[in-house]
Q: What sequence folds into this?
């Protein structure tokens, strides 16, 4: 799929076939990027990619749960653990891409490819990843597989009353200055209060709710149960439900891109506002879809101000992803 | 016209302009609507969320007025079309737009620069809305209920568009209103691109300087709008006509834009009027609104007003909900009278009357109530209908509390009063009277209640009390969900309520204890008077007032707050004003750790 309205740069997206962690290997990747956090899932994909050099950027906060175990694991697989302020992540990543990207004279078949594990990344980091790829220097080229290890099923916990922070995920994804009618495209997960209060607060004319379907049917049941108020077809805000498969991010990206395109090119254009709650692979798809229309699609993040209770999320054993290619500008 | 792709992601989704007809179809005009039309040039419309501010402003615009249909016994549409003597220009700011402007301008070095860019963004969007409104008057679709339509020749339109393009800094490829609108949109996009370039720290100083000096930032909204309106009116032969800029959610405009509007009003061009909506966060002691002087605006309040007016409006709104669902019942027929007071109150105090029996029952059960009667020289077994006006008035005031105590309490083993186990709220909270009271005339609440009710009651005929109570409870639960979160405004001081939810629960529990305590009172404390200078508590109160959880009022002693009546069933309160205690007294016994044990919604 070649998509993109930005004449300066195109992100080329292609499918990445689902596979198991045991099928994954580091051969063919020049470099890999992961995250060092408290989830046991942090090390699932990196362990499978141990054959290739990699870096894991440590989170500054919430160094609890499996954090120390994960640090030891990264050391065992000889990945470089990076300790840096979160605000420097984008610039640091751009420097790494600069190191690994090829110049335009390199054949497409020999384009260097890297792997980026988004499983335990924050949405802000995922945004930075997509931005860094989108802003690669015009004469450089690189391929990037954005990989995600779906979690094992767990039941949702009732969240405590909390202070919410709502903001654009980064200035790159701020969308337009226009006051056009806006449509909220929200990914659902277990964070019902985040979704409900945000929709109530924003008061969009309509909502498109992306509902995840995973291999474990219990997940869908819980998501539908937790979000039944949001999904009420007769509720105060018109809600259009779209099901997407966690295991097929390429199809999800197509759905998102199609939704954004339809809204932007309708006789009376409406501005999509993406709120990618739910699985991080959906957030990844949202960032890529938005990056294809950087001046017209906004991406918001909604988080609790307090540190969220660390959940011991384990990988299910599967790996899904999105394959991106960033050709030199002359090829676009 | 391109047909929607039925296989598309949004198949069945009509992206055409639906908002005007939908708004007009569902519109019921409150008294404040007519105040916006008749009540002066520059007005501020103040009210919590869900009270219909956006709808009221939109219903002042030509497209909405034209879509508003005359109904059988309701001639408001025709009346409004005759009365609105200006062209309404709706300009929607909102939290999303505000967030995007903030994100795009955050890379700018100075506050002044952020204000300039924010003002420029607002200016182009406001001018585009103006051109939209003008274009509708000239080129809107033929309709029998046309409002303020005019003829403008192609040559005159070209003249107008050419002059405006120069004033707006928006050159067009062709001289038409449509091309002008496109050009203004292009300016907004250029502004966004400029901001993205500034955010890219690698651009050189020359480019940065050029962006800061861009002519895109030079357009003055007031003079550009004045020029356009005067030129348009002269060309269509209406030199004295007026235009009203209808600015929604003013608090989300950049400070520079708010100041621009305030100054525009002081410019006193009789042609331009401003009607703005905003949340009730203003300090009533000053004439400043979020830091900008708004002396010249007349306030129109949408907060719950006089009970009779609110109930009458609620009934009309609910009747509309019934019509839209093609139900044959009247509101009273569907809900029944219900409530805390019989339809013929005086008769109910006579021997054998409902209130008389309840009073006697409670007097027999509750020694504190017997003492209350005794102190006032009221004999529970006498003819209560023949009491003096003073005593009758006291009994009428006490009657709802009598009902509540009987419904929720019973004699305890030690002569005290204990709670009665219930699975659901008492039927007191069902029926038209109670539903109107709980709604407080809030359109959003009534719409949500209708939705919940008819999800449970599809059969014709009246809705059982239990179903009504479930529906009202579901609406209250949804609101509770919103109070469980709030915007980040900084860290709460240690030991204080962390969220609006906690404050609401603390207030509710306190008031509940006052109503159902051991000693009967006809005037329990069900209101709180803020009595300390506390930024955090003020922020929570403001958030709850805005979200509709609390209602703020003023009396001779100053401001006071009470729970919205929708929470009356949850806390077993009478849906009416009561006595007020200092807020510090109310909160004295509530600490956050204890609040975590509060049963948060399993009672209904």
A:
């Amino acid at each position: 799929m070649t998509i993109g309205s930005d004449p300066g740069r195109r992100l080329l997206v292609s499918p990445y076939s689902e596979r198991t962690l045991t099928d994954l290997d580091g051969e063919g990747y020049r470099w890999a990027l992961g995250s060092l956090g408290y989830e046991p899932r942090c090390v699932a994909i990196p362990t499978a990619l141990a054959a290739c050099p990699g870096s894991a950027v440590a989170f500054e906060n919430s160094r609890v749960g499996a954090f120390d175990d994960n640090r030891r694991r990264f050391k065992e697989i000889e990945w470089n653990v990076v300790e840096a302020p979160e605000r420097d992540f984008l610039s640091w990543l751009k420097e790494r891409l600069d190191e690994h990207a090829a110049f335009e004279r390199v054949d497409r078949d020999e384009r260097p490819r890297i792997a980026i594990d988004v499983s335990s990344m924050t949405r802000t980091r995922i945004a930075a990843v997509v931005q860094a790829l989108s802003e690669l220097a015009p004469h450089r080229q690189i391929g990037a597989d954005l990989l995600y290890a779906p979690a094992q099923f767990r039941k949702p916990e009732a969240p405590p009353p909390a202070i919410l922070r709502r903001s654009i995920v980064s200035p790159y994804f701020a969308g337009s200055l226009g006051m056009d009618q806006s449509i909220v495209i929200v990914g659902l997960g277990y964070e019902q209060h985040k979704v409900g209060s945000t929709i109530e607060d924003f008061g969009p004319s309509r909502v498109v709710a992306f509902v995840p379907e995973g291999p474990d049917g219990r997940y869908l049941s819980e998501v539908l149960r937790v979000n039944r108020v949001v999904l009420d077809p007769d509720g105060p805000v018109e809600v259009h439900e779209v099901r997407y498969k966690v295991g097929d991010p390429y199809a999800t990206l197509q759905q998102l891109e199609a939704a954004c395109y339809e809204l932007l090119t309708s006789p009376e254009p409406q501005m999509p506002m993406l709120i990618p709650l739910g699985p991080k692979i959906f957030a990844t798809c949202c960032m890529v879809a938005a990056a294809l229309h950087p001046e017209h699609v906004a991406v918001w993040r909604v988080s609790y101000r307090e540190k969220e209770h660390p959940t011991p999320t384990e990988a299910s054993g599967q790996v899904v992803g999105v394959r991106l290619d960033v050709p030199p500008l002359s090829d676009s | 016209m391109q047909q929607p792709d039925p296989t598309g992601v949004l198949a069945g989704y009509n992206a055409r302009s639906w908002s005007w007809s939908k708004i007009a179809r569902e519109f019921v005009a409150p008294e404040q609507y007519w105040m916006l039309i008749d009540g002066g040039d520059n007005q501020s419309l103040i009210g919590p969320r869900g009270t219909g501010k956006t709808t009221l402003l939109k219903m002042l615009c030509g497209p909405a007025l034209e879509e508003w249909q005359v109904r059988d016994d309701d001639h408001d549409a025709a009346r409004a079309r005759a009365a609105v003597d200006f062209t309404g220009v709706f300009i929607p700011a909102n939290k999303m737009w505000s967030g995007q402007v903030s994100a795009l301008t955050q890379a700018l070095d100075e506050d002044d620069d952020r204000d300039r860019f924010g003002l420029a963004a607002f200016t182009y969007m406001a001018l585009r809305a103006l051109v939209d409104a003008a274009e509708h008057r000239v080129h809107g679709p033929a309709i029998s209920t046309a409002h303020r339509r005019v003829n403008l020749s192609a040559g005159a339109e070209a003249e107008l568009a050419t002059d405006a393009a120069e004033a707006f800094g928006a050159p067009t490829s062709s001289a038409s209103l449509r091309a002008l609108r496109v050009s203004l949109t292009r300016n907004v996009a250029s502004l966004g691109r400029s901001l993205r370039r500034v955010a890219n720290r690698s651009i050189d100083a020359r480019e940065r300087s050029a962006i800061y000096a861009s002519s895109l930032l030079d357009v003055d909204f007031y003079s550009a709008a004045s020029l356009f309106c005067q030129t348009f009116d002269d060309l269509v032969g209406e030199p004295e006509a007026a235009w009203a800029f209808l600015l929604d959610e003013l608090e989300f405009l950049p400070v520079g834009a708010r100041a621009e509007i305030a100054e525009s009003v002081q410019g006193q061009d009789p042609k331009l009027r401003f009607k703005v909506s905003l949340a009730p966060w203003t300090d009533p002691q000053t004439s400043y609104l979020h830091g900008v002087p708004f002396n010249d605006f007349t306030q129109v309040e949408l907060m719950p007003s006089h009970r009779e007016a609110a109930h009458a409006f609620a009934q009309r709104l609910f009747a509309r909900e019934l019509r839209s669902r093609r139900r044959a019942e009247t509101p009273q027929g569907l809900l029944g009278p219900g409530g805390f007071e019989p339809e013929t109150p005086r008769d109910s105090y006579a021997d054998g009357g409902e209130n008389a029996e309840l009073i006697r029952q409670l007097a027999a059960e509750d020694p504190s109530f017997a003492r209350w009667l005794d102190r006032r020289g009221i004999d529970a077994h006498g003819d209560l209908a023949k009491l003096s006006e003073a005593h009758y008035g006291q009994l009428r005031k006490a009657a709802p509390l009598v009902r509540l105590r009987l419904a929720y309490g019973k004699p305890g083993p030690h002569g005290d009063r204990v709670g009665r186990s219930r699975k659901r709220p008492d039927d007191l909270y069902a029926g038209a009277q109670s539903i109107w009271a709980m709604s407080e005339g809030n359109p959003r609440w009534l719409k949500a209640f209708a939705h919940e009710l008819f999800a449970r009651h599809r059969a014709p005929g009246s809705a059982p009390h239990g179903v009504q109570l479930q529906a009202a409870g579901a609406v209250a639960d949804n609101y509770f969900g919103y109070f469980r979160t709030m915007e980040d405004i900084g860290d709460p001081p240690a030991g204080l309520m962390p969220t609006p939810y906690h404050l609401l629960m603390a207030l509710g529990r306190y008031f509940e204890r006052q109503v159902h305590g051991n000693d009967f009172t006809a005037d329990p404390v069900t209101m709180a008077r803020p009595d300390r200078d506390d930024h955090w508590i003020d922020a929570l109160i403001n958030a709850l007032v805005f979200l509709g959880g609390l209602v703020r009022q003023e009396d001779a002693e100053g401001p006071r707050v009470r729970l919205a009546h929708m929470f009356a069933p949850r806390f077993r309160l009478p849906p009416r004003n009561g006595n007020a205690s200092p807020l510090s007294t109310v909160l004295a016994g509530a600490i956050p750790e204890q609040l975590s044990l509060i049963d948060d919604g399993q009672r209904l």
